[in-house]
Structures are given as C-alpha cells and as structure tokens.
Amino acid sequence: MLRFRRPAVFLSTLLLLVSLLSTASAGAAEPVRFAVPPWPGVTVKSTVVCQLLEALGYETHQEEIGPVIAYNSMGLDEVDVCLAGWTPQQNPMLEPLLEKGTLELLHENLGDALIGLCVPEYTYEAGVHSIADLDAHADKFNNTIYNIEAGSGMHTSVAEIIENDVAGLGDWEQIGSTTPMMLTQVGDMMKNGEWAVFGCWKPHWMNVVLDMKYLEAVPGSEVLVTTSKVYTVVRTGLDKDMPEVYAFLKRFEVPSSVQDGWIYAYGYKKQPVEEVAREWIVQNMDLVQPWFEGLHSVDGKPASDVLSAAFAQ
Fold first, then answer.
1. pLDDT digits (tens, 9 = 90+) for 191-213
2. In this structure, which topology does domain 113-227 adopt according to CATH?
3. Distance CA 212, CA 198 (A)
C-alpha cells in the first residue's frame, strides 16, 4: 500500500503546482492597457510606467487615442489606464463617467501644471512681475502679446482679456501663430535683449530652453491664468484585477520640472521615447524605488530588487 501512496501524493502535488503556475501565467499574460493621447509629456510618462511594469514581468500595451475615447473605453473594459486626466479642463468628460462608476481618478501624477503669460527673466528683473505691470511698459512691449494660434483656448482667453481691458490692456494686440513659430519669435527677441510677453505653460520644453518667468495674475485674467492637476485615471475594478499595478499607480507622480525634461528630450531634441524613458529611470532610481515599496514582480520577487537589476547603470 505504501508503495502506491507516494506516487499518488507526488502526482497530486505536481498537478497542484501545474495548476498554480498556469493560473499565475494566465494572470501575467493579461496586458496592462494604456490609452496615450498624442502629447509628448504623456507619451514619455506612459513609456516610463510601461518600462517599469515590463521589468516586473507584466505585458503592457499602449494605444494612441484621445481622452474622450480613452475614458469611454474604460467602461467597455478596453482600456485600463490613462495618465492624462487634466483637470479642471477635462471635468466635463470625466464627471459623467465618475457618476456612472466606470472609472476612477486614482492619483494626482502631476500637481503643478500652469497656463499663463511669461516674460524674459531680464524683463522680470527690471520690475515686470505681474500682468498689472505690463501696460506701464507698453512701448517696450510694442503693445503686443505673442500667443499660439487663433481658435485655441489660450488665444481666445487673451482676446477676452484685451476686449475687457483687463489691467489696461484694451489697446494691445495679440499675434497668434503655431507654438514653434511663437517660441522662435520670442527666442529671437530674447537673443537681442528685446522685451516680449507671450503665452506660456508647463510642463513644456520652453521651460528648459528659455530663461523666462511667469507673471502673477490679476482680476479678470483667470480666463487664461490657470493651474491644473493631472490625474492617473483607471477603469473601475483594476484594484481587484491587478492589485500591485493599482498600488504602484496610486503612488506614481512627478513634478512638472521632470516632465519639462522629458518633453525637451523627446519633443525638442527628438530622442527616441524608449531611450528617454530608460535613461531617466536609470538616473532616478531614488525617486522610482519608493513607488514600489512592499510590492513584487509577477513571479513574486521584491520589486525593488528586480528593478535595481533591470536598470543598473
């Protein structure tokens, strides 16, 4: 009898192990699906997150789609994550789906985004600190605000400021063009030491390339000067389906200065996004490791150990 029990026990144990391994493999095979609007900062940010998850054994998939499609696709279980939840700008598209319960604003991954008007640093040092200071130096600015193209929200907001004579700007004009053209114009003026006031925002590579300062707002300028928070948006149920991915995403955040650098490298210097992401991870493991404290790879190893090995310098 004993001779027959041992093979039976061994066979049962083997079958149990196979079953467990199959279950684990099936879980690991489910990709983490990212919606990625075609914005340079979000492209790099998504690639950073995907490279970290892939190092831990997860499969990831990135789909370049806009936020409206992304958020609606979460309710259809076609998208898991989008790192581009700009608020309050996207509130009209997010709030109905939050009420419906198909998605969750998981965590603020960027908390200091800003839109406004900027001047060169030397102009700021000369005393122009606020939108209220512009009109006193109208001649130096040629009564002109440089901005992005007509039809954009920023252009419309500046037009409203001029129309309402906010801070005495009623006799000023606005020159709109594409972002590259505007920044080339302003950059050339700065090289010549000329004064310029222009539409600006962060995160963007302009914050890396140009020595510039953001002007303080005044009553009536709030149509343009706004702060934003960017959220990681996930489909409802991700916490149960991928708890460790969910836990990581709940911690993931970067300041706008980091995203400025990503946009500069990828959007301005035209480095491959995979290269930008990996270089940043390798050089910033001190920022990365706390996101994974207490978490594990797909095969159960401490995430910190796996990532240290995968991104060793």
1. 999 999 999 999 999 999 999 99
2. D-Maltodextrin-Binding Protein; domain 2 (3.40.190)
3. 10
